[in-house]
User: Fold these one by one.
Assistant:
Number 1:
Amino acid sequence: MSASTQRLTEIRTQIDDLDEQLLGLLNRRASLSREVGQLKSDSLDIVFKPFREKEVLNRLNALSPGILPEDHLRAIYREILSSSRRLQQPQTVAYLGPEGTFTHLAGLEYLGRSMDFSPCPTLHDVFLTVASRKADLGVIPLENSLQGSVGQSLDLFLQYNVYIHAELFSRISHALLATNADLASVRTVYSHPQALAQCSGWLRTNVPQAVVVPTESTAAAAAQAEREGKGSAAIGHPRLVERYGLKAVALDIQDLPDNWTRFLVIGPTPTVGSSRDKTSLLFTTPDRPGALAAILNLLADQGLNLTKLESRPLKGEKWKYVFFMDVECDLSQEQYENTIKHLTSLCHTMRVLGSYPTGPHLYGAGITQESS
Ligand SMILES: O=C(O)C(=O)C[C@]1(C(=O)O)C=C[C@@H](O)C=C1
């Protein structure tokens, strides 16, 4: 036996030994998690605690000697936490399907593979499924760094009593997918309106002859392109290639390379407990001069930073608007009780959509980076 073969045998024996220890430790962790699950079920508490998960990940990252890269540590723990949640109680996650949409892939990368992911044909169905408690959680796209808000998602918060539990940012890289690799033969390009808009420059330059047709999702577009064959293409995640038997005719076709979508994890009940980083609010203002300014001044006086303020038309009431606001602070804390009361008195209607931790930035393939 050569020296290197002997060393290899020694190393593998040590790895086996460490794996045994890891197995024991993972089982002990699982058993403790089950106990937490029992306590939660006795007090009707929610299984998914994103702030605690962020705390676990950040603490380990700070303690890590660094041989294992941060991204790997986070990816491994994503699955440990996913399994831990499942041991407490299997969780169904509704998402805008079918399989392979950006929402699905972002949800998998954030929540891990031990969740029961359940596709919904429309965003409306995701909200309905969560609000009617047919799913424990839902994943929805909220806004894109190039195209702005997904108006439908904002509007659906008005229709359904669902709450925000977590957010995540996912890098979006689009591909043109078709059964046939010849760009000149493309007559129709299908995709979700957001994806079509994010690639509009590329489409104009590279397939000017093609008609663009919106679909409910990028994966639905891929299925359509596959059904129609030659002459049809779809825009979506390159991974749709395997699911729908298509070719990736062009990669990275979004008009700007740094293309990110912010997704939200929603649930049927509000979150409670430990301190979170930000709060989302939905409100309407009285129809009088300075109504919005009074709200903004109140937050400014408290030293609270706004990270988003967007108005949407109030359906059925022409030229009236509803505001969606993100505040960089956990307004559910007791110290903000008076601020919330004051805010509510300044609004016509006001709903706290949730307080939650600042989300990680996901780069695909399970490698993640936490935002600062
Ligand atoms: O601390 C909890 O509340 C737990 O349920 C434990 C645990 C974990 O495995 O660390 C599992 C699920 C939660 O989302 C957060 C953390």
Number 2:
Amino acid sequence: MDKLIIKGGKKLSGEVTVSGSKNASLPIFVSTILAPGRNEISNVPFLRDINTTIKVLETLGAVVEGNGNVVGIDTTNVNNHEATYELVKTMRASVLVLGPLLARLGKARVSLPGGCAIGARPINLHLKGLAALGADINLTHGYVEAKAKRLRGARINFDISTVGGTEHLMMAAATAKGETILENAAREPEIVDLAIVLNNMGAKIEGAGTDTIRITGVNELGPVSHRVMPDRIEAGTFMIAAAITGGDIRIRNMQLEHLDALVFKLQDVGVEIINKDNIVRVKGPRKIRGINIKTRPYPGFPTDMQAQFMALMCLADGASVISENIFENRFMHVSELMRFGADITVEGNTATVKGIKKLSGAPVMATDLRASACLILAGLAADNTTEVSRIYHLDRGYESIEKKLAGLGADIQRVKE
Ligand SMILES: CC(=O)N[C@H]1[C@@H](OP(=O)(O)OP(=O)(O)OC[C@H]2O[C@@H](n3ccc(=O)[nH]c3=O)[C@H](O)[C@@H]2O)O[C@H](CO)[C@@H](O)[C@@H]1O
Ligand SMILES: C=C(OP(=O)(O)O)C(=O)O
């Protein structure tokens, strides 16, 4: 197993390029099930989750070939309707194949994903929505079995804003008979990217990016070429890397407007952010101000940036209150941050962080994807050496992060444990 060794204290400088978005790529890959033929997806990040998605698609009968960051997915012969526990347990997004398989083959058998390190993460709203579209759904032996001759449009009102649920039903409804309206839909940019793909395949989807999405079902979809949007969470992580080290960096291939909530908060902290000619310059402050954040569905502050922001607040002048409102167990990084000497108390879904002058490098263990990024950020700012182990979580979602950070002047190395 690999671990990262970081010698902290270097101010980052120079330029870094953001990769394609993991959270957009996964549903886009899955959507190709609906479009028989050869689809070509570009700006795909090299990640473990992408490999898992490819494995899932190959199991279903797709032929996938990769050439750098361009992946060809030929779904002409998708004929297997089953995604096993082995595949779904390694990556929750695999469950999204359920709706597209049902739409394409009339039946699907997909393992329930179960919870993960950050919370229970149920899919009841996905299943309720598919049932509203006319699917006959049974849960047996840890699997969802679904059948439908042809899905039919329906009006669906989500109790909770769900990104995965919105994406899943948008895909399932694209070839349903009649009109589907998704109310209280999630508005994340990754949903808009998926809608662009589906519309280019021939779907009729309006309103993606708002809370009401209208889908007029069509009989069939055809293959597409698509360039995946930049990863806003990777971009946000680099912004905090500049902030926490008092650095001055330029970030290429990011869409700043996708990160408004983070940008406003970073400006409150004292970070300077300048967007010129599609390059975003981020200058860390001399003194980090402590401020409060609450995670919310988009366009609110993203839960996927909460852990990284907490690392920054550990070094703030003053206290900060961080509320996590999306996932019930997304504070696993707190006890690891405390190994750096951070002063944090947690009560329910709220963490109070009292800023300290200096973090002190330590051996720590990553517990989930964004927690891994949080520990790297703390290590970049800490004195002495930090060792981050269990970084397989990191490899699920950040492409070559240690190489990109080293390119910005960080002293960071990957070694075998
Ligand atoms: C709103 C939000 O910030 N969503 C994040 C979530 O998406 P992801 O799609 O994984 O999660 P959801 O948006 O579906 O979950 C939002 C909330 O709804 C609940 N829920 C969801 C589905 C369901 O059927 N029943 C149910 O109760 C979840 O437990 C959670 O509390 O994680 C992704 C990966 O970290 C992020 O990119 C998304 O931005
Ligand atoms: C938790 C994340 O991903 P997933 O939904 O794939 O677990 C994430 O991207 O931060």
Number 3:
Amino acid sequence: MSTAAAEHALGRTGPEGTAARARALTKAYGSGETAVLALDSVDVDIARGRFTAVMGPSGSGKSTLMHCLAGLDSVSAGQVWLGDTEITGLKDRALTRLRRDRIGFMFQSFNLIPTLNAAENITLPMDIAGQKPDEKWLDQVIDQLGLRDRLKHRPAQLSGGQQQRVACARALASRPELIFADEPTGNLDSRAGLEVLGFLREAVDELGQTVVMVTHDPGAAAHADLVLFLGDGRIVDEMAHPTADAVLERMKRFDTLRGTPDSEGGTEAAQGTAKGPGEDRESDGDRARAPGRDAGQGVQRSTGQGGGQGSGQQGSAPSSDHTSVSDQGIAPDRD
Ligand SMILES: Nc1ncnc2c1ncn2[C@@H]1O[C@H](COP(=O)(O)OP(=O)(O)OP(=O)(O)O)[C@@H](O)[C@H]1O
């Protein structure tokens, strides 16, 4: 694999530019002896018009990375941009607006409003924002997702797959700059999961959207253009044109390497020296230490429980799917 992207950060800048990026992104939870360093000076570029998957052992920081890139969580140090807008430092109200207007979200648990029908759920964020949906675009999304004859149904009257399709339509409705999907297939059987992954792929290929998906499933990651691998709060590898087998093999290396401490207390993978099959990535172990790094000092490195990864089973590991509907920016502005 070319290492062009590693010149500055992992991830890729596509022909259409960068939808989001982070520099020296550091996130520590808690303080004192119990503090956990969930993200350790991460540099990443998310290419516009591409489908990026984020994988890694449980606890490696996948959800935290997504939440920080999406402005759902504050950062301890470093910077995050959505397009050209630096979101680190924005006040709550501005962040809520930015999420609502420029980002779409999908979660493992769908997060639909039970009392609203599918059509109302799809347009809810725009309704709250007082924006009129682009009807032509909305029609296209609804047809693409095969929801035309389900619009009057409430979530309880829909299968899991249909509910996730509604959530996908809601994420797409405002034609956002970026869609974040956290384990979108985690609650679905494999057929419904495949369907949703197919729709996300189409959203990128046919609707020109940008998708970032956190997943535990190598088969799901294989739908992406690029897989970023997180280990102990760092991006330690990437794989373009992934296949399920290649991703599975790469994930197995986390299990093999876990518990093999090096001199700095991390694992080989965490230090960026591990390479995936056919990968030719430069190590990030020798990255310049970023200014924000001090935030992580005296903080325990996140030690994910790597076991059970790469089984190909969906939803086999817990997800930090703790984001409320209001967090998605679909609730009224807070003052
Ligand atoms: N709100 C929080 N408070 C304290 N620690 C947290 C919090 N959220 C995450 N962490 C810790 O940060 C680390 C990274 O968590 P994160 O949820 O991002 O990992 P993940 O890779 O998404 O895990 P999983 O695959 O299990 O969902 C873990 O050690 C986790 O325990």
Number 4:
Amino acid sequence: MHTHADQTLLVLASGSPRRRDFLSQLGLTFTVSAADIDETPHPGEEARAYVLRLAREKARVVAARSPGAWVLAADTTVAVGTELLGKPQSPDEAREMLGRLSGKTHDVFTGVALAGRHEEALAVHTRVTFRALSAAEIDWYVSTGEPVDRAGAYAIQGKGGFLVASVDGSPTNVVGLPLGETLALMERAGVPLAWKR
Ligand SMILES: Cc1cn([C@H]2C[C@H](O)[C@@H](COP(=O)(O)OP(=O)(O)OP(=O)(O)O)O2)c(=O)[nH]c1=O
């Protein structure tokens, strides 16, 4: 018997409001169920491998409690050379991270994973170049509170826009969900998309 694909449930395994907004903008109907996993990198783990591992883990944890659903998860990290910059744990750490990024180009990686009938995953890489920042600019930005809960201590889509000189690659990848690649992934897996109903 033919089953209508659009009856398949889509679950976003994320507590991130950015990811929720992006998926909504695509016209997709979904529920949200955040996965709480250990995000500690393995010793010497490369950024691409790290974000893929975490995205897959988040998707699997939620898929295990969502029978019959497609589960989408993602993880974003900032890398300076081989060093991973996660979310700052304090204003001092945020200042330190922003100082490291000032006047240089860094890498942003997002891993996207889909779990359900089968698994699919991909990682997207964007290069972001920061302006040379003054200490006063960094202090002010940290005082806005925006760096909290942001990989690399900035939000390009918010007040942190002034930090950035240029972006090479997917802009939505930097905010936490590379939209073009995520759509391609869902299409490949057979997840029902709004314009295909
Ligand atoms: C670099 C950058 C990161 N970020 C955010 C995206 C991610 O939400 C966050 C990185 O943390 P993640 O661990 O990728 O995601 P999360 O903890 O917010 O949500 P969940 O694991 O439940 O899905 O940093 C921005 O919003 N703007 C930016 O410019």
